[in-house]
Amino acid sequence: MHYKQKYAFLLIFLVIFLFVINYNFLDKSLEGFFEESESGFVERVIDGDTIVVNSTSVRLLGINCPEKGEKYYEEAKDFLEKEVLNKTVELKFGNERYDRYGRLLAYVFLDEKNVNLELVEKGFANFYFPSGKDVYYNDFEKAWENCLNSNVNLCEKSQNICRNCIGLKEFNFEKDVLVFYNNCSFDCDLTGWGIKDEGRKNFVFSEFVLNPFLEVKIIVGNGKDNSTTLFWKGEDYVWTKTGDSLFLRDDEGRLVLWESY
Asked: Are the C-beta atoms of 131 and 108 separated by less than 8 Å?
């Protein structure tokens, strides 16, 4: 009996010890064992976040690249082509296998390197988790922070005179309400500035000046704009409740601020 008690205490101690010292390590170690994967040949690169593997369209998980006509669209596509075109890659799948367009959803690995992650770190994509954060989320958040430190491409910081004037006072993602304020003693012309989520939803300021020490509220829905309230029209909702990010960019597409939840 004494031996069994001693063994049980030792086992409990080891379990607690492993979780305390490095839960993330255990999580990562088990990740490769449980997740599904398959290999395939990349026949075509459609854009920065979509490829064709074994005649199947694959949407890269965890990222969102600029659309055609947007800044860095071509650069993202070119980078991806150089990385994976005409090469055999490994596809690792998440919780959802297909998107609403029927595309396969996957993380693309080449020689054990996460190509999706590379696109974020190089500033050709922002991280994007519409179905909720998964085991790779922290890696992508870190890649974005590295991109910001490098100040490249989508992470390039604004040089606009109002870059340090405009602050985010309220980010109510549950009610789809934003409040920005101007903390400088001069007008800030926000015409052409844009607000974007992690995905495709985009709001552009149209001929709008924010006066000194005043606020502007942006509400998702239809209504009449005025000097203090603007409406994000054409959307039922913007912010994904499982987690999302806000990116504010100036009229040259450079980053003013961002915030995630």
From this structure: no
